[in-house]
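User: Show me a protein chain along with its predicted structure.
Assistant: Here is one chain, sequence first, then structure tokens.
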Amino acid sequence: MSQPVEELSISQFDDGQEIVQEIDKVILSKGAWATILFRYREWNRTKEAYGEDKYGIRRYQKRNGEYRQQSKFNISNKTQARLISEGLQQWINDSESKS
């Protein structure tokens, strides 16, 4: 049976502890190649608590009905996420104004 892209997750467990907790995801593309934007938190063993929100983009390739991660890009904090968002928005606005 073929794995649906909606089942892909960034969550990770170690000895029953969720060390990477997926908070949300946005599926950017589906098909033979899938791209997903994840919002997640990592478990801090020292503080025994989850850290600040992080964001990541994962690219998957589907082979034999299974998705396999091919690449990833981690956005380490809200400031970096905001700068990426603002940069993309500026480029979109610039290209629309030239049309």
